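To the wet lab folks,

You asked to see what we're planning to order before we commit. Fair enough. Below is the target structure as tokens, and below that is the sequence we designed to fit it. If anything looks off to you, flag it before the synthesis order goes out.
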């Protein structure tokens, strides 16, 4: 999930996306988008101040409530006019094609617990909608194993729950209230996406941070102006498994990191706390954190004289994040990670924490995506 919502890499290993162009597929009339103009984000009349040293945001102007869902011929006309998304269902190998807003509901069901606050769910709906529209506009079908599909239902793009599963396991399986809540979040943000300088953003997101998000260039190779490191203090108190310790044998560490037997001898006991800029270690276990990222994750670490990036260690060892501490006892290595995911963009648990303290979807998204604007899809397509 989430962890792989990043720009696709070309052969020179630079991260990029294709330029936006007129290749948008199956985008029909867009009048269906006009009615709910940003009503979706439902800014309350009174903004509850955020805590933890966050400045109190200025009160935003009230907007009208989201319109009731249309019925009859009007509903049919709106559905027919929506852009269509074709999803490759990895388990069955089939392709499911459905209106964009229904697709967003399926993504929301897969990517965020229905128990989350409504404002967090609305923020996730906007991020999911932005992600897929950017992909459609760019004609980007990278990572899709068969022709005819725009996207997969996996974390390589966005996780997605199929229409059949939503009907059978949610609507008829005792979770109709949860489904209604997700659909409300989608309806109240209908047609809204995030843009930067007039174009849909790369709306990356992840599960939870260890207190800060990450600059894009410190995980990928591209500096993206709206994907900047920001504080995210909400996760620590509300996230299950915020800190997770994984145990490895020394032989597993050596094999996965490609090191030889002489690098990490099995002798004395040693432990470390959460890394500051450097770790002082036993001379028999030469491990040193050389630098940290802006987001307080391991940027470079020397293990047995070999330098790795924090991302390399995370991926080679299958860790939850690149913010970790390292310890050893006997022939066991203990690595404790903080948070879960690559750390770039919106923290989902952070979004829920903001919402619990009164933050709106607008405030959540503007916090995690620096300098973005909100645009109706219909407005974007008219340009």
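Sequence we intend to order:
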């Amino acid at each position: 999930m989430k962890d792989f919502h990043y720009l696709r890499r070309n052969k020179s290993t630079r991260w990029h996306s294709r330029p936006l162009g007129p290749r948008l597929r199956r985008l029909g009339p867009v009048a269906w988008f006009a009615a709910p103009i940003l009503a979706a984000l439902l800014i309350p009349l009174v903004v509850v101040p955020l805590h933890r040293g966050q400045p109190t945001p200025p009160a935003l102007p009230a907007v009208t409530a989201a319109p009731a869902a249309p019925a009859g011929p009007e509903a049919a006309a709106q559905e027919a006019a929506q852009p269509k998304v074709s999803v490759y269902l990895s388990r069955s190998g089939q392709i499911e094609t459905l209106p964009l807003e229904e697709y967003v509901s399926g993504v929301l069901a897969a990517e965020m617990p229905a128990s989350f606050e409504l404002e967090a769910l609305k923020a996730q709906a906007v991020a999911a909608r932005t992600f897929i529209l950017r992909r459609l506009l760019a004609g980007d079908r990278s990572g899709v194993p068969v022709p005819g599909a725009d996207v997969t239902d996996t974390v390589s793009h966005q996780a997605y729950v199929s229409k059949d599963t939503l009907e059978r396991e949610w609507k008829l399986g005792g979770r109709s209230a949860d489904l209604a809540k997700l659909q409300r979040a989608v309806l109240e943000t209908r047609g809204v996406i995030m843009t930067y300088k007039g174009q849909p953003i790369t709306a990356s997101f992840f599960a939870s941070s260890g207190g800060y998000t990450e600059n894009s260039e410190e995980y990928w190779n591209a500096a993206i102006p709206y994907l900047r490191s920001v504080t995210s203090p909400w996760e620590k108190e509300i996230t299950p498994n915020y800190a997770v310790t994984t145990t490895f044998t020394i032989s597993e560490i050596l094999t996965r990191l490609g090191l030889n037997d002489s690098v990490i001898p099995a002798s004395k006991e040693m432990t470390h706390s959460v890394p500051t800029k450097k770790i002082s270690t036993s001379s028999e276990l030469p491990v040193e954190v050389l630098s940290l990222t802006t987001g307080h994750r391991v940027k470079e670490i020397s293990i047995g004289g070999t330098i790795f990036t924090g991302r390399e260690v995370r991926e080679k060892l299958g860790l939850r994040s690149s913010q970790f501490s390292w310890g050893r006892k006997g022939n066991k290595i203990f690595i404790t990670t903080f948070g879960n995911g690559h750390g770039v963009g919106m923290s989902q648990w952070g979004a829920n924490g903001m919402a619990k303290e009164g933050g709106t979807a607008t405030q959540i998204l503007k916090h995690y995506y620096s300098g973005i604007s909100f645009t109706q899809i219909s407005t974007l397509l008219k340009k």
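Structural context that might help your review: Residues 4-25, 29-69, 268-283 have pLDDT under 50 and may be disordered. The first helix runs from residue 72 to 81.

Thanks,
Computational group
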